[in-house]
# Entry
Amino acid sequence: SAPLVNRFHVVDEQLKKVNNGLEVQIKNDMLEVNQIAHEIADLNQQIMGQENGGNTANDLRDRRELFVSQLAEKIDLHWYENQRGAFQIVVAKGQLLVDQERTNKLEPHHNPADPGSARIGVRLHNGKLVDITDNIKSGSLKEAVRLRDIRVKEYHENFDLMTREMAFRIN
# Structure
């Protein structure tokens, strides 16, 4: 019986490690989104400055397109180019991530009902934090949240049920 109990502890620890790994991935993806958004905002500023003087900024525009593609791998988005040549990028729940040369940042926060799982919020310039976790439709952030909140949670619940059932039957 002791080897079986030890094996259960090992499996439980492995599930916790997978969950923790997904937490780290989610937070790292949020940092990457913020870095890419900052790059896009900087490029917006350079493009507006260069094109305001009557020049073309094709190389800068190409770099910005590349960053937008990288951003779209992390989170679903919509972008619009305004009259000045700057992009505005909107993510889940219609929240602005990039507004010309300004950015709002993704920020982890915790639900008091589930303090172990980071939620994804957009910190607005007025200080308000808007939770967008359940509104993200695609990208690596969506996949990591889905794995953590559905798959790993489901495996853990089934494993707990199995261990309780076995303990009941053995005793």
